[in-house]
Amino acid sequence: MPAKLFWKLYWKLSGWKVNGRWPPDVRKAVIIVGPHTSSWDVVTGMAARSVIPIPHAHYLGKKELFKGPFGWFFRATGGVPVDRDSKNRLVDQVVEEFNIRENFILALSPEGTRKRVDRLKTGFWHIAKQANVPIVMAGLDFSKKELILSEPFFTCDDQEADIKKILHFFSPIRGRYPELGMGHLG
């Protein structure tokens, strides 16, 4: 069974729906997906990518994953290898991916982990700013089985204002484990 058909079937059988739409003219963007509280977020996100559809969607993975016997799998599912040991260069590596590709949609978690956080990571913001691409927020609300898409927006010069906007969007959204979500940050 082709992967897209599998994901569409999974989406339908699991009862998820989409609130919003992917802007068809956006060929490059950073999608921040949250709240990231469970491994099921990845499964639901993979299904959403096929259902919406979001063309040219990718995610980052440490370069070592792409060298082993399953490297083909990570590439086939949209993985992009990065050198995570050079933290200062990570943003530069990803911005370069945006610069060399005509179509590149990158999905990231603004928390950077499935654990409860006291603040969001900001690498996604720096990537979007330096690559001059919009951010689209995608909220996975497990209480409603609803993926909520925001309109795309470009970063402003005030990172704190953008983070407040992002927290306002994500705070009411309940992840699979709501206690690990972003509600306490907003």
From TrEMBL:
SMART domains on file:
PlsC
Biological processes annotated in GO = phosphatidic acid biosynthetic process
- GO terms for molecular function, please? 1-acylglycerol-3-phosphate O-acyltransferase activity
Q: Does the keyword Transferase apply?
A: yes
Report whether Zinc shows up as a keyword of the record: no
What keywords sit in the KW lines? Acyltransferase, Transferase
Q: In which pathway does it act?
A: Lipid metabolism
Alphabetized InterPro entries for the sequence:
Plipid/glycerol_acylTrfase (IPR002123)
Which residue range or ranges hold the Phospholipid/glycerol acyltransferase domain? 30-143
Identify the stretch annotated as signal peptide in this record. none
Q: What is this protein called?
A: Phospholipid/glycerol acyltransferase domain-containing protein
Q: What is the lineage of its organism?
A: Bacteria, Pseudomonadati, Bacteroidota, Chitinophagia, Chitinophagales
